[in-house]
Design goal:
single chain; 6-stranded mixed β-sheet; 3-stranded mixed β-sheet
Length: 349
């Protein structure tokens, strides 16, 4: 198994014990200075994916054809915000942009396993940003956690504003994210899109996966109720069938096999194919899916490569598939993003 995946899964195992949080707790108090200078998004190196430049999102699991270096025939854009990949205890609450090994790690995990499914859906934009340490999410009451998340969000917001001003040119767009990325994308929609009629018109869909999003999160952006509806939000948090977690009751859950919001079970036969973290194969009919009280239930038995992430101090959520929220339904999400682009073309808002 690749070293990066091993490290990620090893961390997940470590987090079984809340005492292991000390391993990822920043050594120093929060200071914006320690994060280094803010990125200049006019510089192409501040983007993990940018049309015309190679990105790991161009990679494909065996069986899928490689896309063109820059999809030329698409009418849409995709703006992708990656999840947390900063675990190392370097003393910083936010990852400085200069960390080259972090760039490589983000590419071979998030860009490959998540952003790749959107690559040939539209022109892909994925900003690098001074992400908050993973510790910020496990210790929200620590005085450094919210300032670290605010600093990370400021970068994401700046990148989106630069994208709108210099790259978008009025094109429809998909917003896609996971985990910490969804925390920032969720806020981005609140501050820049929900109250903006023009951007609402351009929004095809927002895939807000792996965080706490409510069905009525926004005033004007509804939870999408079928596979072709546009102009709203989609989201889920995956766990093993039978799991119940009270804090998630009432959260938005979209079933990625049916793209509906009801609790009817969707059989594994509807699963076009999952892709394991190793990215070495496509597993057809990988898992069924069913919505249950704020969670998306998936089958508990899979081939190797789909691992749980146990959350310290949260025994009721002992079987989370957070790491593979996208991987379990890889081909379904890919196909649905394409379908929504076509639906938007036929009926712009």
């Amino acid at each position: 198994m690749p070293l990066g995946i091993t490290r990620w899964l090893g961390l997940a195992s470590c987090l079984l014990l809340s005492s292991c949080l000390a391993i990822i707790k920043p050594i120093h108090h929060f200071s914006a200075k320690n994060a280094g200078p803010a990125p200049d998004y006019a510089d192409s190196t501040t983007w993990a994916a940018l049309p015309g430049h190679y990105t790991a999102a161009q990679l494909r699991p065996p069986g899928l054809p490689r896309p063109a270096p820059t999809p030329a025939d698409t009418v849409a854009d995709v703006f992708y915000v990656h999840p947390t990949t900063y675990f190392w205890r370097l003393g910083y609450w936010n990852a400085p942009m200069r960390l080259k090994r972090l760039r490589r790690y983000t590419a071979r995990t998030c860009l490959r396993n998540q952003a790749s499914l959107f690559y040939d859906v539209g022109r892909l934009y994925a900003p690098r940003y001074r992400q908050a340490t993973l510790y910020s999410f496990f210790a929200p009451k620590d005085p450094g956690s919210q300032p670290a998340l605010d600093l990370a969000y400021a970068d994401v917001k700046a990148s989106f504003q630069y994208y709108l001003a210099h790259y978008n040119h009025g094109r429809p767009f998909i917003l896609a994210s996971h985990s910490q990325g969804t925390t920032h994308a969720q806020r981005l929609l609140h501050e820049l899109v929900d109250d903006n009629p023009q951007l609402r018109k351009q929004l095809i869909a927002a895939y807000l996966v792996g965080r706490n999003v409510k069905p009525n999160e926004y005033q004007y952006l509804p939870a999408l109720r079928d596979s072709l509806q546009t102009g709203g939000i989609i989201g889920w948090n995956t766990a093993t069938r039978g799991t119940d977690f009270a804090p998630y009751h009432g959260l938005l859950v979209t079933n990625p096999l049916t793209w509906t919001l009801d609790s009817a079970a969707a059989p594994a036969s509807l699963n076009r194919g999952g892709v394991p973290l190793t990215f070495k194969r496509i597993d057809a009919h990988l898992t069924a899916a069913q919505i249950h009280r704020g969670l998306l239930w998936a089958d508990g038995q899979h081939p190797p490569g789909y691992r749980h992430l146990h959350v310290p101090g949260k025994k009721d959520l002992s079987a989370s598939y957070h790491i593979v929220d996208y991987n379990l339904f890889y081909l379904n999400v890919r196909q649905n993003a394409r379908a929504r682009v076509r639906a938007w073309q036929l009926n712009p808002h």
